[in-house]
Design brief:
Structural class: alpha/beta
CATH superfamily: Vaccinia Virus protein VP39
Helix content: 40-55%
Strand content: 15-25%
Order of helices and strands: HHHEHEHEEHEHEHEHHHE
Length: 271
Amino acid sequence: MSSREKSIRREYSAVYSQFDSPLIQKIRSEAFEEDIGQHSWIIAKDLREYLEWLALSTTDQILDFGCGPAGPLTYVVSQTGVKAIGVDINATALASAQNRVWTMGLSERIELKNVTEEVTPPFKDDCFDAVISIDVVMHLPDRTQTFCELWRMLAPGGRFLFTDACIVNGALSDEDIRVRSHYGISHFVPHDFNESALASVGFTLEKKEQHSDGLIAICSGRWQAREKYKKELITEFGETTFEHEQAYLKKLVELYSQKKLLRYAYLVKKQ
C-alpha cells in the first residue's frame, strides 16, 4: 500500500472515529436538510431519485461499494426491503456502520465486509442485481479495473449507480486541487472519461445527470453549522483542524458554484 493510500485511510479514520459523537450528530442534523447518516455529498432527495432509477424489488441483492458509515445504505434497505452487502476499506467507518445497522434493526438484511484495494472483492460472478457507490470512484487509482470487477459481479440486466464529484469543467490551480484533495488521494477526470471507461468493460449508459447543487448545499450547511459550534469543535479537535475544515468547505462551495468542478450521477446497465 502506498503512503498516499495510507494517508486517505488515516484522514477518513479521523472523521469516522467521531461520526456518532453527540456534537457531530448535532452538526449533521443542522447542516443537512434531511440527515440520513451520510458523510458523502448526497442529499436525501437525490437518493430517493436514484431509487426510482434503480427500480429495486424486495427480492434483489445489492452491493454498496464503499459504504462508509452506511447512512445511504441503511436508507436504501429500509425504503426498499432489499438485502444488501456493504464493503469498505476503513475499519472505523465499518464500526460506525455496524452500530447503525444494529440500531435500525437491519442486521438480517445488511452484511458488512472489510476489504482492501489489494484484494479482489470476494464475490461470485453475476451475484448482485444492483451496485451503488456514492462519491467513491474519484478515490480509485484505476477505476476502469473496478468497473470491470463490478460488471463481473452484476447479474445480466443489473444496474450500477454511482456518483463522481471530481469532473473537471474549468481551469484549476494547484491550490484548488490541493484543497479539494483534503481527504487524501483524488483523481480528477474530464467529461466523458467515465463513459469511455464504462463502455470499455461492457456497460451501457442509461442516465447521466449533474448533481452539484446538493454538494454546494451540504458544504454551505456544514460550514454554517460548524461556525455555530466553533468553540466546541476547537475544544474537541483543535483550532488548526477546525480552520482547515472550514477552508476546505468554503473552497468547495467556490469551485462547484463557479462550475470549475462538477458532480455527476451515472446509471449504467449490464446487458
